[in-house]
Amino acid sequence: MASRTVFSPARWLPWVMAVGVFWLSSSLLLDLVIMPVMYTSGMMAEPSFAPAGYSLFWTFNRLELVCAAIILTGVLALRKTPGEFDVLTSGSRSRWALGIGMALLGVTLICTYGLTPEMGALGVSLDTFAETYAAPAAMDWLHGAYWCLEALKLLGLGLLTGLCYRDVNKGNDIEAIS
After folding, report:
1. How far apart are CA 2 and CA 136, in angstroms?
2. Burial 70-84 (b: 16+ CB within 10 A, else e)
3. 52 CB contacts (<8 Å, ≥6 apart)?
4. How far apart are CA 127 and CA 156, in angstroms?
5. 93, 160 in Cβ contact below 8 A?
6. Which residue among 17, 34, 113, 126 has the highest number of C-beta atoms inside a 10 angstrom radius?
């Protein structure tokens, strides 16, 4: 007799929450610890920083794409079969969670395939005889765009985590009773 796997959307809720918290904490670590240390140590003023920064962000952006994909898949799975959890049964909360998941994927795609390659290309010094390195003026605009998208991403992750937190606790309470 073949075994049959029963689909339980409630199993996605802890994954969405865990990946959201992981992504939020790793983004804060990069934005509030790693990048300021690089800036204050003078690494960003070096002409060789662009390739190093590009490889750092190339790796981190791919990790963000995986996180965004897991979160969006989890939110879609949660919407598939409504259950006893609020994100599943509440239409507005469910739509907010789906919208946030899609926005997170969009922001990540823009950063991965738009901003990071452009910033990496602009940061490469093509004048090997220059004594000092000066970042192009367009880099300021790209940094501003990056920080705006980063703020949207952090806000979205915080909102999604808040939407899922109550449901994870409610799920633990239901399992404890039964």
Report:
1. 63
2. bbbebbebbbeeebe
3. 43
4. 41
5. no
6. 17
Tokens read off for 14 = 């802890």
User: Number of helices (H) and strands (E), helices first, in the chain?
Assistant: 7, 0
- Cβ atoms of 98 and 157 within 8 Å: the answer is no
Contacts of 166 (CB under 8 A, 6+ apart): 86
What is the Cα–Cα distance from 52 to 125, expressed in whole angstroms? 13
- Alpha helix stretches (DSSP H) within 30-48: 35-40
Query: pLDDT-based confidence at 121, cuts 50/70/90?
Result: confident
Question: Which tokens is 32 given?
Answer: 């509030």
pTM of the predicted model, to two decimals?
0.81
pLDDT (tens digit per residue) in 168-177? 666 555 454 4
CA distance 103 to 45: 33
Reading the block at residue 37, the tokens are 């240390």
